TrEMBL record:
Belongs to the dienelactone hydrolase family. It holds the Pfam family DLH. This is Carboxymethylenebutenolidase homolog. The lineage of its organism: Eukaryota, Metazoa, Chordata, Craniata, Vertebrata. One of its GO terms (molecular function) is hydrolase activity. One of its GO terms (cellular component) is cytosol. It is found in: Cytoplasm, Cytosol. It comes from Spizaetus tyrannus (black hawk-eagle). The keyword Cytoplasm applies. Its main location: cytoplasm. The gene is Cmbl_2. The keyword tRNA-binding does not apply.
Amino acid sequence: MANESRPCPCDMGDRFDYESRGQEVQAEHIKAYVCKPPASTDKAVIVIHDIFGWQLPNTRYMADMLAAHGCIGICPDFYVGREAWKPSDDWSKFDDWLKTRDARKINKEADAVLKYLKEQCGAKKLGVIGFCWGGIAVRHLMITYPELKAGVSLNGLIKDSDDMSNLLNPTFFIFVEKDDFIPLHQVTLLEQKLKKNRKVSYEVKIYPGQTTHGFIHCRREDINPQDKPYIEGGRKDMINWLNKYR
């Protein structure tokens, strides 16, 4: 897992120079970024941010990409106004900061977002994706909310105690081959748990040769041409999973 000097890998990769296409809205007690496709749709995907929060251009780009594929993309502020982590912050204080932002204690926020999507957007076919911190949150939501018909957890950190026996709907787990923060033996353990307790469809995919944690979200294909096939392939896999099950 992470080392003491840098206990989370999310500062690896590129910060996108990107102007988002959607708008910010209020969903009960939290704010959210929403991007809608040109044509009306009843499909929506919740995009859960990593430690850098809901305003990160990379994350909003993912919501816009989903809208380009014909569904509503919504990225809520699951930190509820509290400051997101910054790359310049003191990593020695990261663990204390993280304790106040538990990815498994977001039900109130999820309730507000689901209500907004159903009542304000007419969404009926719902999915969720999340990156790193958000990948953990996806696993929690997929064992909690049956209306989420498809989930994609991207590089969500794994604990030996994680219970995968109660997934309610199909979930796709994405990892990279050379991730110092999520060793492959932990991914193997996750697969064993999923296989043993299988009740719904799932897939665990390790992208070969990748060293950047969260490359789908944190790498730019235009300045990392050697990663382009993996970045594009990973995004395609994510979209295909959502389309197949949601």
